[in-house]
Amino acid sequence: MFSTLSDELSAHSELPTDDALSRWAARDRSAGRVFTRGAAVAVAAPGLSLRDRLVVTGPAADAIPLVRDVLAEVGRGYRPFGDRGLVDALVVAVPGLRPTAGFGWMDRTGSAAVPPDGTAGWLPPAAAPQVGALLDRAFPDSYAYPGRPGAGDRWAGILPPGGSGTPLAVAALAWCAPSVGLLAGVATDPAARGRGLGRRICAFVLAEALAAYGTAALVVADDNTPALRLYRSLGLAYRPLRAAAFEA
């Protein structure tokens, strides 16, 4: 069947892979579960970026039977999530599993490629209503939002001249793991676009994530060409992913 590295991850358990995506998925050491079969690893991560996800890595020959058995253990509400070719193989092999559109995981380890210029900084928790108002206008589909589980209060912003009022650009560190800081909720006020504010806020949060966690990462839509160009210019490498879910 499958082997369990640990029924419940403890503070001292070790993940049997250095893969950044798997390390991010194993962030909740009290609730996550890690399964292995051959060279495949599956991390069942409840509430990861608002959904129960099953992050899978490794060769399809090992991953397919592993995922079948793990889903029987944790339930079909968990969504397989991983490298695009692997998830495509799972969709073919597991009846009822349907793919989502492709998207990208981007990450960087080490030091920041572009140093922040001092225009961005962390916002106080009291700024949450202003952050929410900006997201409502500029990025209403953002998974990260003040007050949502896992999104926390670590929001950075660039304020208007004078240093007060609603931020012109924001970004968060959300659903972070001990060794992976996840950038999310990147948004610029539509009236302030074209000034390079997105690059400035991302450079700040990226540098903060690298300093705090060692690896910084984010998820980006494949059709968001400006964002892909920006993140690549900041030194993040692209990795094509896909998720899948069972039919309702």
Describe what this molecule looks like in 3D.
- The protein starts with a strand and ends with a strand.
- Helices cover 27% and strands 31% of the residues.
- The chain is elongated.
- Strands 1, 2, 3, 4, 5, 6, 7, 8, 9, 10, 11, 12 and 13 form a 13-stranded mixed beta sheet that branches.
- With 248 residues, it is an alpha+beta fold.
- It is built from 6 helices and 13 strands.
- The longest helix has 17 residues.
- The N terminus is likely disordered.
- The chain has 2 domains: 97 residues, no CATH class; 131 residues, Aminopeptidase.
Write the SSE topology.
Elements: E1 3-6, H1 20-25, E2 33-37, E3 40-48, E4 51-57, H2 60-74, E5 79-83, H3 84-93, E6 97-99, E7 103-109, E8 121-122, H4 128-138, E9 155-158, E10 169-173, E11 181-188, H5 197-213, E12 215-221, H6 225-233, E13 237-246
Parallel strand pairs: 4-5, 11-12
Antiparallel strand pairs: 1-2, 2-3, 3-4, 5-13, 6-13, 7-12, 7-13, 8-9, 9-10, 10-11
Helix pairs in contact: 2-3
Provide keyphrases for this structure.
about 250 residues, alpha+beta, Aminopeptidase, 13-stranded mixed beta sheet
Quick rundown:
By secondary structure, the protein is of the alpha+beta class. It has helices spanning 20-25, 60-74, 84-93, 128-138, 197-213, 225-233; strands at 3-6, 33-37, 40-48, 51-57, 79-83, 97-99, 103-109, 121-122, 155-158, 169-173, 181-188, 215-221, 237-246.
The global form is: elongated
CATH topology of the largest domain: Aminopeptidase
- Count of separate DSSP helical elements: 6
Low-pLDDT stretches = 1-12
Distance between the termini: 27 Å
Q: What is the helix/strand order?
A: EHEEEHEHEEEHEEEHEHE
- Overall CATH architecture of the largest domain: 3-Layer(aba) Sandwich
Helix fraction, binned, reads 25-40%
Number of domains: 2
CATH class annotation of the largest domain: Alpha Beta
